[in-house]
Design a protein that fits this description.
Distance between the termini: 90 Å
CATH topology: L-fuculose-1-phosphate Aldolase
Largest sheet: 8 strands, mixed
Order of helices and strands: HEEEEHEHHEHEEHHH
Shape: globular
CATH class: Alpha Beta
Oligomer: single chain
Bound molecules: zinc ion
Structural class: alpha+beta
Radius of gyration: 26 Å
Strand order of the largest sheet: 4-3-2-1-5-8-7-6
Strand content: 5-15%
Length: 282
């Protein structure tokens, strides 16, 4: 089935909604000052977007500008962000996308800095909503590398982490794209807390398959699951770090656990034998 391009909203409504979404993202702390950008497709060759250099917490509807599909300003007084190329790539690759949200959410970026993937299937609602959450390769900001990299991932995914940079989420409208950012950052926060408690347990392949069956039954779109996400995870039980023992604290070299245990058993046995060998009453 061909993807359906959503009916574009009235420009006045789109302006109001973009400002509302920017305020929410700023209020949640998922960008700082002028970071991030939000856009809405107004038609075949028109995209309404946030300008460069304006604080998202104080953005006004008349700060927004309209660009064509090559990123050239059609109306408005401010300039477009250099990151508009990512948004245009999304509209290009995905006719079903009506809005794009790019932010700098704290936990998502922290995971990418640590080199820990969020692609494992951990929570049922993530399998339903996203499939896997990929992390794109690092690209140099403001260059063509950025849209070229996200273009590859947008074919199969609605939400992704941009390495050392932020998030990109798309949807039929701006609230749908915002909701995916909220869910992805929530997953990142839950995963961070779970990792603080100990090793995490991804869903079993059979559990993921069952979720996908249920999703199909509910009429949800089939989401892409990355084939072996733990190839690029360095912290979960089956990830790369599983093979390496934890480092001891500096200046302290503990005995290996097995040797410790043997030593303990030997000393307990000796002590018991000595007690049993003692004559009664002494
Ligand atoms: Zn950015």
């Amino acid at each position: 089935m061909q993807p359906v391009t959503p009916r574009p909203p009235a420009e006045r409504d789109a302006r109001r909604d973009i400002v509302e979404v920017c305020r929410r993202i700023y209020a949640r702390g998922w960008l700082a000052a002028t970071d991030g950008n939000v856009s809405v497709r107004l038609g075949d060759d028109r995209v309404l977007t946030t300008p460069t250099g304006v604080h998202k917490g104080y953005l006004r509807e008349d700060d927004l500008l309209v660009v064509d599909r090559r990123g050239r300003r059609v109306s408005g007084t401010r300039g477009p962000s250099s990151e508009i190329a990512m948004h245009l790539a999304a509209y290009d690759v995905r006719p079903d996308v009506g809005a794009v949200v790019h932010a700098h959410p704290t936990n998502c970026i922290a995971f990418s800095l640590a080199g820990v993937s969020l692609a494992q299937c951990l929570l049922p609602e993530v399998v339903f909503t996203f499939g896997s959450i990929p992390t794109t390769a690092y690209t140099t900001p403001t260059t063509e590398e950025v849209p070229n990299e996200v273009r590859r991932w947008l074919v199969g995914f609605d939400a992704m982490i941009l390495d050392r940079h932020g998030s990109l989420t798309v949807g039929a409208d701006v609230y749908a794209a915002y909701d995916k950012l909220e869910r992805m950052e929530h997953v990142a926060e839950i995963t961070l807390r779970a990792r603080m408690l100990g090793p995490i347990r991804p869903l079993e392949p059979a559990q993921v398959e069952r979720l996908r069956e249920v999703g199909r039954g509910l009429g949800l779109p089939d989401r892409t699951i990355l084939p072996s996400p733990c190839d690029h995870c360095n912290a979960c039980p089956s990830g790369k770090a599983a093979a390496a023992p934890p480092l001891p604290p500096p200046g302290h070299a503990p005995l290996p656990l097995a040797a410790d245990r043997e030593d303990l058993v030997r000393r307990v046995t000796e002590s018991l034998s000595a007690t049993l060998a003692r004559p009664r009453g002494r």
